[in-house]
């Protein structure tokens, strides 16, 4: 199946009908363009979009099977990574040998990716191209422009993919955050200009399409987090996603303003902090102390930021909860703040950590029991989706990055915004945009690969 010069198609291999392991293909004039190449971490008992019920014993790290595009890798013009979250970039080191194409990503994402490639010993084999936000590059028959939007990680970008047959606006993960704290913001004018130029299709994040209102801004979290940190009598541990550099910076400012010393616990936190410094998105005036010092400080001067917000085993928070961390032990009167929401499937593991902490006499503050905002989603709620549709005004709305209920709600919302046509499908469906819009269901076989014992295996 090779798209001709009169064809323009969209083909998701992962991330449509599910949240995680994103892999998208655009086809035109004999070539393919891949957008994102991510992993997922399945939970036993969960059912995936393809009907797979996950069980204990299967690989912990899984990704889309690139069989379709691997057979056509000579026609793969390039791979674009929209941002550095694992579900968009995590599969690159495992799959690059099967793709062997140039990779395009902006500065922070490039730092994260370079570290991953180096760990797999392939950094110097990969052609990595780092465009500036706003730049336009020709990748095969596609004219691609990187445009700024906001998300819960530095340097996220949406894409305007221009072809002679029509333009596609690919949002990636996004929100409309007036104060993202770190990295670039966005301008309404950018997207209204796209509408003036004409957008054939908008391929858009559906994660929070069932959530009413507008997402909380990262900039609005300072007061709530400061309240719970400043009012604590003992040590404070905040657990959050390591990739949320804005959250780390907010906590750094709070530490300085409340007379505490901030230390980072957990490899992912430390790695992301280093990448932020190398990419120039971490202010030189902000910092963290050597974690080995925190155990010797008065309890009221300690602010530890730890991995483990999802109850994962072997993380810093789990070790603190079990009293096995080498730096210090939590005591009655200390406080742990969960500055993150549970990813579906992790609720039981998170509750297990909370029970362990409570048994130690530690006070636990979560998003659900906090009276002040301590977490902000990185995805658009309904009001933001409406705003972007009203600005961009595509002819076709294509919901992706969500389970069936999210994409269905998203499609209904797009129709309510006056979008003439919506196309909702799942991995393996071929979305034909030109010459005549339509869909071919399950045109391409899709599947999963898992990483275990140093190699890739098919996940049944």
TrEMBL record:
<dbReference type="GO" id="GO:0003723">
    <property type="term" value="F:RNA binding"/>
</dbReference>
<dbReference type="GO" id="GO:0046872">
    <property type="term" value="F:metal ion binding"/>
</dbReference>
<dbReference type="InterPro" id="IPR055132">
    <property type="entry name" value="RNase_J_b_CASP"/>
</dbReference>
<keyword id="KW-0479">Metal-binding</keyword>
<dbReference type="InterPro" id="IPR011108">
    <property type="entry name" value="RMMBL"/>
</dbReference>
<dbReference type="Pfam" id="PF22505">
    <property type="entry name" value="RNase_J_b_CASP"/>
</dbReference>
<keyword id="KW-0378">Hydrolase</keyword>
<dbReference type="Pfam" id="PF07521">
    <property type="entry name" value="RMMBL"/>
</dbReference>
<keyword id="KW-0694">RNA-binding</keyword>
<dbReference type="InterPro" id="IPR042173">
    <property type="entry name" value="RNase_J_2"/>
</dbReference>
<dbReference type="GO" id="GO:0004527">
    <property type="term" value="F:exonuclease activity"/>
</dbReference>
<keyword id="KW-0862">Zinc</keyword>
<protein>
    <submittedName>
        <fullName>Ribonuclease J</fullName>
    </submittedName>
</protein>
<keyword id="KW-0540">Nuclease</keyword>
<dbReference type="InterPro" id="IPR036866">
    <property type="entry name" value="RibonucZ/Hydroxyglut_hydro"/>
</dbReference>
<feature type="domain" description="Metallo-beta-lactamase">
    <location>
        <begin position="20"/>
        <end position="225"/>
    </location>
</feature>
<dbReference type="Pfam" id="PF00753">
    <property type="entry name" value="Lactamase_B"/>
</dbReference>
<keyword id="KW-0269">Exonuclease</keyword>
<dbReference type="InterPro" id="IPR001279">
    <property type="entry name" value="Metallo-B-lactamas"/>
</dbReference>
């Amino acid at each position: 199946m090779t798209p001709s010069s009169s064809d323009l198609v969209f083909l998701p291999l992962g991330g449509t009908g599910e949240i995680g392991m994103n892999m998208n293909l655009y086809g035109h004039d004999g070539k393919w363009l891949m957008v994102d190449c991510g992993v997922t971490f399945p939970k036993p008992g969960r059912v995936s979009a393809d009907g797979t019920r996950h069980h204990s014993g299967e690989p912990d790290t899984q990704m889309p099977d690139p069989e379709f595009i691997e057979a056509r890798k000579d026609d793969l013009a390039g791979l674009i990574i929209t941002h550095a979250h694992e579900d968009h970039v995590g599969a690159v080191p495992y799959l690059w040998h099967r793709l062997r194409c140039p990779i395009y990503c902006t500065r922070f994402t490039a730092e994260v990716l370079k570290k991953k490639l180096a760990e797999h010993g392939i950094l110097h084999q990969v052609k990595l191209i780092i465009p500036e936000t706003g730049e336009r590059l020709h990748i095969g028959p596609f004219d691609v422009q990187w445009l700024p939007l906001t998300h819960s990680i530095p340097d996220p970008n949406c894409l305007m993919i221009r072809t002679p047959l029509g333009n596609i606006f690919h949002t990636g993960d996004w929100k409309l955050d007036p104060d993202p704290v770190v990295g670039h913001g966005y301008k309404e004018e950018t997207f209204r200009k796209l509408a003036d130029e004409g957008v054939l299709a908008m391929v858009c994040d559906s994660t929070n399409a069932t959530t009413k209102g507008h997402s909380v801004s990262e900039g609005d979290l300072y007061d709530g987090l400061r309240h719970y940190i400043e009012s604590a009598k003992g040590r404070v541990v905040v657990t959050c996603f390591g990739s949320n550099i804005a959250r780390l910076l907010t906590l750094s400012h709070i530490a300085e303003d409340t007379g505490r010393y901030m230390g980072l616990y957990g490899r992912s936190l430390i790695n992301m902090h280093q990448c932020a410094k190398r990419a120039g998105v971490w202010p030189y005036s902000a910092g963290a102390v050597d974690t080995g010092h925190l155990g010797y400080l008065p309890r009221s001067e300690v602010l530890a930021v730890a991995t483990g917000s999802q109850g994962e085993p072997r993380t810093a928070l789990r070790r603190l909860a079990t009293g096995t961390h080498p730096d210090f032990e939590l005591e009655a009167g200390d406080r742990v703040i969960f500055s993150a929401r549970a990813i579906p499937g992790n609720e039981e593991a998170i509750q297990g950590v909370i029970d362990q902490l409570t048994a130690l006499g530690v006070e636990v503050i979560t998003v659900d029991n906090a009276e002040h905002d301590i977490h902000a989603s990185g995805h658009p709620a309904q009001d933001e989706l409406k705003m972007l549709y009203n600005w961009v005004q595509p002819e076709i709305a294509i919901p992706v990055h969500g389970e069936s209920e999210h994409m269905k709600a998203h499609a209904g919302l797009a129709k309510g915004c006056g979008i003439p046509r919506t196309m909702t499908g799942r991995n393996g469906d071929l979305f034909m945009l030109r010459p005549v819009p339509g869909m071919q269901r399950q045109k391409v076989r899709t599947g999963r690969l898992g990483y275990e014992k140093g190699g890739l295996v098919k996940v049944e």
